[in-house]
Amino acid sequence: MAGGLLAAPLAAEAQRLQSYEGRVQWIAGSTLILMTDEGWSLRVDLTRVPQSDYSGVGLRDRIIVSGTLSQDGNYVRGLSIERVRSDFQSP
Prior knowledge:
Layout: H1 2-15, E1 18-28, E2 31-36, E3 41-45, H2 51-54, E4 62-69, E5 76-83
Parallel strand pairs: 3-5
Antiparallel strand pairs: 1-2, 1-4, 2-3, 4-5
């Protein structure tokens, strides 16, 4: 029964929408690897992300990925990607 008690918090966490900001390490097919500002890499499943969200996204681009953790906590099921402008210009 202890296994069920430990699995419940992970399952609840997996259902909560989260956002992760960082730079694209690589992107291929339906997988993106994001390097966060904290220095860890996240594998992102892009199958639920509209292609228009990530078309044109390239290496080292800053993005915010929104999604949920997989049940096992090994990757993020992406739902959307937003590009972050890091080069602000004054008027």
